[in-house]
Write the structure tokens for this entry.
Amino acid sequence: MLPRLRRFAVGLCGNPADGDDLCQMSIERALANRDKWQAGTRLDSWMYRIMRNLWIDEGRATTRRRETFVAEEAGFSVGGEGAQEPAVELSMVDRAMQQLPEEQREAVLLVMVEGYAYKEAAEIVGCPVGTLNSRLVRGRDALLEMLGEKA
Amino acid sequence: MTVSREDIAAFVDGELAGEREAEVAAAIAADPDLQRQVEAHRALKAQLSGHFAPISEEPVPDALAALLAPKQAEVVDFAAARERRETRRSIPRWGWIAGPALAASLALAVFLPRGGSADGYADAQLARVLDSQLVVEQGPDAETRILLSFRDGEGDFCRAFSSVEGSGIACRDAQGWKFAAQGEGSDGAKTDYRMAGAGDGEILARAQQMADGPALDAQAEAEARDGGWR
């Protein structure tokens, strides 16, 4: 589960350093609140929810700062030679994800990367399924536009 | 019938069920523009999965693992699994994604699907599904779901599939459906706790690497089936 949690954290934060910080905070909070986890419910969903709430509560200021930095850095590599293409494409995905509003980014990550069903993702985020669905569609459309329809 | 963008997305995610899924599938089959949208969504999903997959395959930084180490004995499993991973590099790396079913134990494990015979070919039951089932026709309760079909670099037809017992990619050669990739099973698309995407994402990312061009659309897939996948 830890590798998957890290993946979600890095996806939310947009870079590994902040992602690992978020991951660490989440584990600490989970351990501190161990008694609140109900046996029989899903530990991974519970952990995702803790992480997601932490990110919303505390991570925003940090993420904002980094966003500016990451965008600038990616801007340089876009101007590079064609030989760097794979790296550029990767950072394109990161950059596109960071352009999404937070609510769309988390919906996209939970469903399209982590593979949660809509209902599960909605429970983690704490919103109705219909709301999650429309965030997801808006996020997807924005990504398709930014990344180009490759099909 | 009108098909909204929500419908297309939900269809791609396997979130539609019953009549609605059949309606949307029929509308997609009849409309090349919708097929194009479906493919675009699938490609996006594969691109995202492929992009984020490496993060979950990296060793967890010691600082994070250490947080859990003194308190939870399960971490031992995790370390052991990582060690096994190092010694068994011949197993495809994406076979080692931590399974959600094991979430509570923090352990990594590998699942090889049943449905394979010893020589690396699909058994009769799986072969029947691979031979006959089309993406747009399958119901949400299909035991084995075809994720997509494509041609590999050698021009052979390949199909990515997913079931509770195992997911993978099989390519049709003169002898039968030969496994090109195998991953862990998913829990099926219709339960509330579906985690299909976690394993399927890896398979789709792999399919994207293998594919020579985009996945087959509904029409091309039907034609390929009628031609016996050769």
Notes: Residues 36 and 142 of chain A are 37 Å apart (CA to CA). The two ends of chain A are 32 Å apart (CA to CA). Chain A is about 80% helix and 0% strand.
